[in-house]
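#onboarding

Welcome to the new folks! Below is a worked example of what a typical request in this channel looks like: someone posts a single protein sequence, and someone else replies with the predicted structure as tokens. Don't worry about understanding the tokens yet, we'll cover that in week two.

Example request:
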Amino acid sequence: MIYKLNKKGETLIEVITALTSLVLAGVAAVTVIISMMQSNAISKEYLIAQNLAREGIEGVITIRNTNWLRFPSTKSTDWLCVSANLNPLNCAARVNISNNYRLNYKNNEFILEEKVSGTIAPETGNIFQLNLYVQGSTLLYTHESGENSGFYRMIKFEQIDGSTDKYKVTATVQWMNRSKVNEYKLSSIITNYAK
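Example response:
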């Protein structure tokens, strides 16, 4: 006598096992995709912060170079002039190492704006906040009007070896990510080598 096994369908256990495997694979794939998207967002923010800090240092270097041209007879003392508004031939204020600064771009030139007090604090919003400003088809980061970019930048000067011809410039950029303050600092030594 020959018996035929009836294999018309899957058993309930096989169907549940297949569905469970499929759901677990889907959850794993979605988790990996979400993780990659978060990682990309963090990388983008970090790259923006690096560029804003680099712009801060380069802006100070541009101010130094412009002052050499603006004050040729007094470039040994006025190379870090931050205010020449009343008379462009005379320096009204030089860098003060006990103050903080913000770098702005007005009238096609970089300027340092002295802020006697204040700290960079993205969780509360403050004078160091950078805004996105639309100029034509270009987005600019500025301390002037515009939409809050979520980034904050502060420039700090330190004298090196008590010399008035050598400073350490530090650009600090902070931003919030998931209620955590992130920070990127970039420092450079600038000198008055053209005195």
